[in-house]
Amino acid sequence: MNTKQHLPRRKKLIDRRLQLRLAASYAGVALLSISVQALLFVQELLRIAPRLPAGHGAFHALIPGVVQRVLLISLALLLPAVLLVAVRATFPVAGPVFAMKRYLKRVADGEDLPPLRIRKDDELQDLCALINAALAAARTGERPEVVELGADEEHEAAA
Question: Which of 22, 61, 96, 144 satisfies CB 3.0 to 4.6 Å to 124 for a cystine?
């Protein structure tokens, strides 16, 4: 689409809504995992507490504070990392989706554009080729050769 295909992305949130929704789902999974881990940790501490020598009541009283502190530290360390990885992992999808939306809006506005191009490492290369083939067919009235669908796409199309 432009000549800067080889340059790294400057914009970190290309499609803010899509990337934040995906990042929130990753964060939700991380939060659930940490919560389950904390619950299992508490269960084990409570199971061990009665086996301690006299004075295990004090240990019992300390458990909630210790678990809360460990949970908060885990969240403080892991949640930002999960969000960063999630946003970075969405680049190969969010970038092409953003480019395709912008390209199709410009085509709908009547602009005569060269074929759509996305970065070679991005996902959705087959969809990009299909958009180009459909637009070429609409412009010329001829049926161009269309990209072959993979086995997954053929299965979905048949359903």
Answer: 96
Distances (CA, A) of 132 to 1, 15, 127: 11, 22, 9
Q: 19-52, pLDDT tens digit by residue?
A: 888 888 888 898 898 888 888 888 888 888 777 7
Q: Give the whole-angstrom CA distance, residue 102 versus residue 119.
A: 15
pTM equals 0.60
Q: Which residues contact 150 (CB under 8 A, 6 or more apart)?
A: 126
Domain ranges of the chain: 1-90
Measured distance CA(60)–CA(55) in Å, rounded: 9
Q: In this structure, are residues 63 and 45 in contact, taking their beta carbons and an 8 Å threshold?
A: yes
With tokens 């709908």, the residue in question is 108
